[in-house]
What does this fold into?
Amino acid sequence: MKVAVVGATGMVGNVILKVLEERNFPVSELIPVASERSVGKTIEFRGKPYKIVGLTDAVNMKPDVALFSAGGNTSLEWATKFAKIGTTVIDNSSAFRMDQDKKLVVPEINAKALTKEDKIIANPNCSTIQLVLTLAPLHKAYKMRRVVVSTYQSVSGTGVKAVEQLENEINGIEGDMAYPYPIGRNALPHCDVFLENGYTKEEMKLAREPQKILDDRTFSVTATAVRIPTAGGHSESVNVQFENDFNLQEVRELLAKTEGIIVQDNPNTNTYPMPILAHGKDEVFVGRIRRDETQPNTLNMWIVADNLRKGAATNAVQIAEYLVTNQLL
It folds into this structure.
């Protein structure tokens, strides 16, 4: 199986290569793809060196699957070129997420909707994935009406430049700024660009993507997305109002038996999810599970996941695994 990784030298691209290796994905030929300045350099995969190629050469090599993580503009220009020659594209950018002709997939929830005809598959936003994976079993059991989510997102979600800004600030070094303000010892209520309605693009992704993934617009989501000075891992404070009442122990049991979720919820032992514990892991961690005592049928939760893994690379590779297992490539 020929596998292209577009954006192989970037933060998510690096993690995709790592996850492909860890999960023993059946790669017979790797095609690492990056921008012109990286073409000709080599990367290592499974102990072997591979030369980085440009996008045109990658298309000519006709990969079976292409995992894209090179930004929306690259995806818009090149994903269809790969799809036309029969390659299945799994795209990490926001380019196709809300395209009504493209499926937005979290494998544990809606991979069964995929067919051989789906040549461009969208990977959801990192914050959406951990949110919707947790909400899906609860929605099925109690029917959601409204979700209020506040995010605490790591600088790795912005990219290498932001990680460098945080490290520079910690070490007292002046350098390039990824953000309009310092991020160290700070919190920026500003993820992505502001829109006319006063929300950011990140907040609107959280509002719209869960409805598409769950194929249900009977519930609403409102979000505030905040960038905090952690190097990796996104956290979310989530308040969910349901149509039907719930039992807290049943909620914990439902989540605990959901594929991809680990419940960490014991206040007596200070057991709760944290980014530092989620780092390098593929699961979504849920804790601080409690009733909202101000509203009927309403639940509070705290959700944490590694945004570069389940929030991006792992989810994309899991989609590819589903396609291989079900002979959809």
User: Anything to note?
Assistant: The mean pLDDT is 97. The first strand starts at residue 2 and ends at 6.
